[in-house]
Amino acid sequence: MAPSPALIGVITAVAWFCGFVAVHIVGWRAGLSNARSLLVSYMISALGTLITVIALTAGSKTIASVLLAVLLAVMTSACLVILYVPAVYTVLTSLSVQTLIMLRRAAGALPEADLYDHFADRSIVEGRLATLVASGYLVADGARFRLTSRGRKLAKIFRFIKRFWNLGAGG
Amino acid sequence: MKAICLATMMTTVLLLLVTLTFRLAPAKRRARQMLLLYITCTAALVGVSLSTPDDLGFLHRSLLTEPHWLDLALVLFFFTAAFFGGILQLYNLADRGFSLRILIDALEDPSGTIGIEQVMTGYGGGRGIAWMYDKRMRDLLEGDFVLRQNESIVLSANKSWIADLFICIRHFLRLDSR
């Protein structure tokens, strides 16, 4: 018995997503670990998913079955990527994870002051500001950094969420 | 299609519950509070999914998912992704996002700019960069990932595998060799 269009949609999305992860990991190992390479490889995977699902379900009885398969494929792919991206950034940027790694490499213990010297240090701030400039959220303005319109929009959205959820200063 | 409808409905309910809880009865450990709400909503979602007809009373036959087990699997997957990849991430970014807090500090500065010294001493609405790390250290201590012994921080024996796992991942991805 042939699989249903819905099942074809889900399996296709998972297969293309696995391909995306494989390409992303290979790119990462080759030094292409920026957000643009992640986005481009994911867009190719999403496009491949769409084309494959349409091609495989085109012979279905109704157009609604094809649309359902496409919708489930898009949803499955989107859900997989929103689970994958935070995991990637945890590996890349989490200071808590970096603290655990630093402790492990120091035989499991370090003076608290050493950790603060390392993670509450000027170089961490400089690095993060440089990343924000490279990502287009800040622009250098003499010795300071000015918000770009993109950075201003993002800051306003998250300031609203913080206030709406009563999260306090945060950060 | 039933999976999409039910997952969307329950995600909206969860978002409302999280908002109400944060505004009316915030706990010290909000992520744990959110997780409890997610588990409760997941149980309710399974109940709703099993007790409602495949067409939910309004879906056209051609929009019914075959085989039947796929609907329940997808509704759980979509809802789980919406929580862990959506709502929980939004909370993490809003409450703990280092870069986002820098952007908000710049937004709240009258000049609309920010400097390195300002981040060092005024990060987080005037608290300073040490406070940023205090917060992470406090979470690591509360989660028993590390222990404080005299003036040192010690990796918990039963959580050291997490550090090993991240070391392996970073090694495999060649992140530390650049």
Give a concise summary.
The complex is a heterodimer of chains A (171) and B (178). Chain A has 171 residues and is mostly helical.
What does this structure look like?
The complex is a heterodimer of chains A (171) and B (178). By secondary structure, chain A is mainly alpha-helical. Chain A folds into 2 domains: 5-92, no CATH class; 95-164, Winged helix-like DNA-binding domain superfamily/Winged helix DNA-binding domain (Arc Repressor Mutant, subunit A). Helix content of chain A is 74%, strand content 6%. Chain A has helices spanning 5-29, 35-57, 63-93, 95-105, 112-119, 122-134, 149-164, and strands at residues 109-111, 138-141, 144-147. Chain A has a two-stranded antiparallel ribbon with strand order 2-3. In chain A, strand 2 (138-141) and strand 3 form a beta hairpin. In chain A, helix 1 packs antiparallel against helix 2, helix 1 (5-29) packs parallel to helix 3 (63-93) and helix 2 (35-57) runs antiparallel to helix 3 (63-93). Chain B has 178 residues and is mainly α. Chain B has 7 helices and 3 strands. Chain B has a two-stranded antiparallel sheet with strand order 2-3. In chain B, strand 2 and strand 3 (152-155) form a beta hairpin. The mean pLDDT of chain B is 90. Chains A and B meet through helix 1, helix 3, helix 4, strand 1 and helix 5 of A and helix 1, helix 3, helix 4, strand 1 and helix 5 of B.
Give the tally of structural domains of chain A: 2
How many separate helices of chain B? 7
- Give the low-confidence spans of chain A: none
Largest sheet of chain B: 2 strands, antiparallel
Multimerization state: heterodimer
Gyration radius from CA atoms of chain B, angstroms:
22 Å
What does the average pLDDT of chain A come to? Answer: 89
- Chain pair sharing the greatest interface: A-B, 80 and 88 residues
In helices, the fraction of residues of chain A equals over 70%
Keywords:
heterodimer, A: 171 residues, mainly alpha, Arc Repressor Mutant, subunit A, two-stranded antiparallel ribbon, B: 178 residues
